[in-house]
Every structure is written in C-alpha cells, then in structure tokens.
Design a protein that fits this description.
675 residues; alpha/beta; 6-stranded mixed β-sheet; 22 strands
C-alpha cells in the first residue's frame, strides 16, 4: 500500500526474525503505516521515502558471525528514532562500544522483567512485566552513553541512549506472550517517534477479492480444501470473488486424516455451495518418494514416505505429492496446471516458519510447510499460485471467515495440519543417542533433584560440576524457588532418546525431550515453572513433559521402530479421537486453541531384556492468538483436571499404548507441533 500525504510511516528492517510480520501487524493496528525492508537500507533512502522511525527486528544470527546481517553504517547516527529488538538491540550496543556475550544462560519463553518506569518506553507500566524472551547471546557491557532500563535477573533486557532516540529491547514486545507489548510499541511510536496514528487500512476482504479477480481474470482456479479453517476461508473467498464454474474445489485424502475426518470435511464443504471433487490418494502418499527438486543434502530420494524418519523429508514428500495429485485431478477434468491457478490457504506463520522469501529474506527455516515446498515455490515463480491469506494470521482468518458468513463450527475448528497425522507420529528406526546424552541426563537430574544435590555432604566431582552449571545459569531467587520446589515434588527425570522440533533464538532446534514423573499427584503450576527453567539450563532440551502413572526411573536407551504404517496410524487415530471427542463434549474447543495428540516411539517400564514394542502418546493443549507464540494450558486453570484425567484414561485403554504424557512446553522453545 502506498503512502498518503502526512501519513505516519515506520520502517521495519528485517534481520530474519520469526516475528517480523507480527511487528508489522501490531504497528498497523496502532494506525501507523509500516513496510518491511532490507536491513542495510541507508538512512538517506529511509528519509526520502518518508519514514519517521525504524524498528529493527530480531534474528537468528550472532553479531560476531562473519556472515552476520548488518545495518547501514550511518543508521544509528542518523537521528532517526530506532527501536532495536533482540538482535537489533545487540547490533546497537555493539555499534556504540558495548559488548555482546555468548552466555551460558538461554531464555526461551515468558519471563518477568523489571523495568524503569521513568523510561519513555515503559511509560504507564508497572515495574514487573511478563515478556517473551528468546535468545542465547545477550548484552554484556552496556555501551557508553546508554543506560539499562530493564533487567531479567542478571541479563540486560532493555537499554536507551541518554541523548539520541535509540532504544534496544532483548525481549519481543510484538507477541502475545509480552502481556503489555502493545503498550510498549505504542510508547515507542507516539512518545519517541512522535506518530499521531492517522493511518487506516482499507477493507482487507475487499482487497483480497480485488487481488483474486485481477490475477485470475476468466481462468479457472483449483483450490485444495482440507476442511480446516484456512482452506475453507480461502475457498469461500474465491467463491465470492469468482463465478462458480471458475472454482474447482478438491479434497485430497492423503491417508493421514483423523478418524472420520474426510466424511466430516465433505459435509462441511457442501454448505459452502462448492462443487467438491474427493480424491482418495492414500496409497499414492504412502509410497511417494522425494522429488529431486525438493531434495537437500543428506536426503535419500529412494525412500518411500512410509520408510522415512526425517520430519523435514516427510513434509517435503507430502507437499510435493499434493501438487502431483492435484495435477492428476486437473488432467482427469481435461485441465492443465499451466491453464489453471493453484489457490492455497497459506498464512503468514506458514511462510515465516518455512523461511519463504515472501515473509523474510533472512529467517531461519523452522519447518517446511506442505504449502511452501520446492514445487509450490516453482509454481509461485511462474505466477500460477494464488494465496489471498498470505498476510493473515489465524485469528484474522477466523474474523474474515465470519464476515464471509461461514458457519461457526468451520470458523472455530481447531487447526489441523495439511500433512495430517503424518507429522504427529515421531518416526524413528533407532534411538537418538549422542556423546552428550549422558551429560545432558546428569544435568537434567541435577535440576530436578536440586535440593537433594545441595544436601549432599560429600558430593562427587560430577555432582559438583553439574551443580555449578545450574548455579551459573540461574539467579539467587530462582535457586531458592528451585530448592523449595524440588524438595516438595520428589520427581524423577528421564531424557528420552528422541528429538522434536523447536524454535529458540529465532533458530530451528532439533533436540531431546525431558520427561518428569512422580508417585504423587502433579503440582501443575510447579511443573510449568520447571518446564520454563529446564531448557534455559539444559540447552540440548527443547521440550518438557509430565508422564502420567507411577514414577518412571528406568533409563530409556532404545526405542520402538516406528514408521508411517497402518498400525501406528490406527493407534494414533484412536487416541486422538478419544481426546478430541472429550474436549468437544466438555465445550473446551474455544478456550484451548489447538490440541495436537502425538505418538512417540517410547516404551516405558520395560523389564531387562524385554523388547521395545509399545508406543506412548503425548497430549499438547496449546493456547495462542497468533500461533507464533503460545503457552500450554495449565490443568486446574484453563483445563479442568477431571477433563485431562478422562483423556488420559481413554488413551491409556487403547491397545499398544505404554504411557500418556502431557506437554508442559511453551512456544518458544517448543513449536506447536512436535515435528
């Protein structure tokens, strides 16, 4: 959208943050026009284009790396008001003679910072503020002429220049986990930059419809509909923008749908007045291999999907197969992909996590979404893909769906990934064991049994070493709480020899899972607090779970070989069906944003010599608005304990289930899905 006379404009310089477009959205909602631009744009050009201020996003890089993204050398001395977020703050501090340190302390998740209320950025806010931290590097020595205006324990959380309009924050004010983040952004825009808030957006629905009509003309459009809210809203938008005969709606059953899912999808889509073609392609997907165009280093292109264990390879096979099956459907209708546009319900978070150039030029790839594979990108380059929702987030899509008249049961449906249950089964043919497995297990044990370690009168050298690691990465207040918590809970910890995908410091991680258990009833608030602390101390862990049932103490060093085969899919379908049905019947589908039910290849409680044959199920109750960040629902608060107990009982009765786990992890450090 172009600039109008006297309209406030702020530039967002892209350093590769997962949340760059969230900054864009939040600033626009404050009636200030924004544009995402390259990080190294000159201040002269920024002024020529009418920008009154600058926000530098976070990013996955280190300021000391040889290939570290850099701002223009004159930017910080240009006189433009600048807010540097995370990586942006570190660049600012380094530029003026401060230091940035690769500390032993990670912060990934919601933490409480202490702010100075006399700083313009925190005007009107209380001293203690919950914010999202996601970083490994942090400011060491604050640069001359800057002062610290917020702290997270002993970590510098915000700085400001004493004379120039330069402010840096280590946290992310743009996301929902920063409770007063909008107020912080408002203070920067109106108190520091001097914006007046005179920008308004035209109707986004009208804009989407105009874009579709302009691109498509008289051509036909193939829209792949899964039954989820994204594809349903995309289909409804096309139906409103175009003539009925122009829209070819196809539902592809890939064999990884939930129990009774395809029948439910058909019923839902009939109400959209769309002519729907249903394609059963289960066997095709099971036996598909990786397209050469999507192959990356280390991929085995000869492996079929039902033999593949790498999550990224699974996602790329599924995404490419969707395109190939869609081409075959078009052929059966005497149409060609060269004559038809492919429409997708791709959202902004999909593109960000896939590191698409449409979202960011420098973001790290967290996971490949099925709607952003190499084949899809090839079609985009040829101008054959329409994605009218690409600048939307999930809550905005739901609002648009309501405006389009979609039924509430479609609009409020929980998101279900295009690859379906295929990415909710952690496939593995062997345990994930690395040289650091035992040391990581020891460190995890030291955290969970901290009070017992402290009471040791003659600790071993190993115990002393891991205690020092814990002490060096925590504050005195945290150590006091950890002592009290671990003395009361009497927990056992296990490091599971599996990996899940996470996002930490704007980077993709692929790390171990920590499993906590006890013979006592869970103290959920204490477990939630531990789950935030553990990844900060144990850098090789990005997810923490509670294990239901008796205390589990036997180390697990083998797994149950697991692939995308009918037995594993059937087990997960039954477990998922029981849990989702309970959530629906108890009226909790609105308060819980999403509930992935995940199968992991872990057999607990095996006797010596007993073969690993069973698998376990994880429940992840997730609460979020933007799906870029979020928290687990706390049993006894957002999730009634009796409802969770009912789910656990139902899942435990499914044949082949070893144990049921509850995911305690926020995003970050864990992603919404496990793969």
């Amino acid at each position: 959208m172009g600039s109008e006379n006297n309209v406030d404009r702020v530039a967002i310089l892209d350093a590769g943050s997962q949340y760059g477009k969230v900054i864009d959205r939040k600033v626009r909602e404050l009636c200030v026009e924004t544009e995402m631009l390259p990080l190294d744009l000159s201040p002269q050009e920024l002024r020529q284009r009418g920008f009154k201020g600058v926000i530098i996003s976070g990013g996955p890089g280190s300021v000391y790396a040889e290939d570290a993204p850099r701002v223009h050398p004159d930017l910080f001395c240009s006189g433009l008001p600048i807010l540097g977020i995370c990586y942006g703050m570190q660049l600012m501090n380094l530029k003026f003679g401060g230091t940035v340190e690769k500390g032993g302390t990670r912060e990934d998740g919601q933490f409480t910072i202490s702010v100075k209320s006399d700083a313009k950025l925190f005007k009107g806010l209380e001293e203690n503020q919950p914010v999202l931290m996601s970083h490994g590097d942090s400011v060491g020595n604050v640069a001359p002429n800057f002062r610290t205006i917020a702290n997270s324990g002993f970590i510098v959380a915000a700085i400001e220049h004493e004379e120039l309009p330069l402010i840096g924050v280590q946290f992310h004010p743009e996301v929902d986990l920063s409770v007063n983040g909008v107020s912080i952004l408002r203070n920067f825009l109106f108190e520091v930059v001097g914006c007046s808030g005179n920008f308004t957006m035209t109707s986004r629905e009208d804009g989407c419809i105009a874009e579709v009509r302009s691109l498509v003309g008289d051509s036909k459009v193939l829209v792949l509909v899964s039954g989820g809210v994204d594809s349903a809203v995309c289909a409804a938008l096309l139906r409103k923008a175009l003539n009925p005969e122009q829209v070819v709606a196809v539902h592809i059953d890939n064999g990884f749908m939930r129990k009774n899912e395809s029948a439910s999808v058909m019923q839902s889509l009939e109400r959209l007045d769309l002519r729907l073609t249903v394609q059963d392609a289960a066997e095709r997907f099971y036996n598909s291999t990786l397209e050469s165009a999507s192959a990356k280093a280390g991929d085995n292109c000869s492996l079929r999907l039902n033999e593949t264990v790498k999550p990224e390879q699974k996602r790329r096979i599924i995404g490419d197969t969707f395109v190939r099956v869609a081409e075959e459907v078009l052929s059966s209708l005497n149409l060609s992909i060269d004559d038809v546009f492919l429409a997708q319900g791709t959202l902004r978070p999909d593109l960000i996590e896939s590191a698409s150039a449409l979202a960011s030029g420098k973001a790290d790839a967290i996971k490949t979404h099925h709607n952003d594979t190499a084949l899809v990108r090839e079609l985009r380059e040829r101008g054959r893909v329409i994605e009218p929702l690409r600048d939307f987030h999930k809550d905005e899509v739901r609002a648009l769906g309501k405006d389009l008249g979609l039924p509430s049961d479609i609009v409020e449906r929980h998101p279900f990934p295009g690859p379906g249950l295929a990415i909710r089964i952690l496939c593995a043919n062997e345990a994930y064991m690395t040289p650091e497995f035992d040391s990581a297990s020891s460190l995890l044990s030291a955290v969970v049994n901290y009070s017992a370690y402290l009471s040791e009168t003659s600790p071993s050298p190993e115990q002393s070493a891991v205690l020092e690691q814990v002490n060096s990465t925590t504050t005195a207040e945290e150590r006091s709480k950890l002592t009290q918590t671990t003395s009361q809970l009497n927990l056992s910890s296990l490091l599971l020899p599996i990996r899940t995908v996470g996002v930490q410091g704007d980077c993709r991680t692929y790390s171990f899972v920590a499993a906590l258990s006890s013979d006592s009833s869970p103290c959920w608030p204490s477990l939630m607090w531990l789950a935030k602390l553990i990844p900060r101390i144990c850098h090789s862990v990005n997810r923490v779970c509670h294990v239901f049932g008796p205390r589990s103490t036997q180390a697990i060093r083998t797994i149950t070989p697991t692939f995308l085969t009918p037995p594993s899919l059937d087990l997960l379908r039954e477990a998922d069906f029981g849990a989702q049905t309970t959530l629906l019947q108890r009226g909790l589908t609105r308060s819980i944003s999403q509930m992935p039910v995940v199968l992991i290849p872990v057999h607990f409680d095996r006797q010596d010599g007993e073969e690993s044959t069973l698998q376990s199920i994880v429940i992840r109750t997730f609460i979020t608005n933007d799906f870029m960040t979020g928290i687990p629902a706390t049993p006894g608060q957002q999730l009634p304990v009796e409802v969770l107990d009912e789910m656990v009982s139902q899942i435990s009765s499914v044949r082949g289930v070893s144990r049921v786990l509850f995911d305690l992890t926020a995003k970050p450090p864990g992603t919404t899905e496990w793969e």
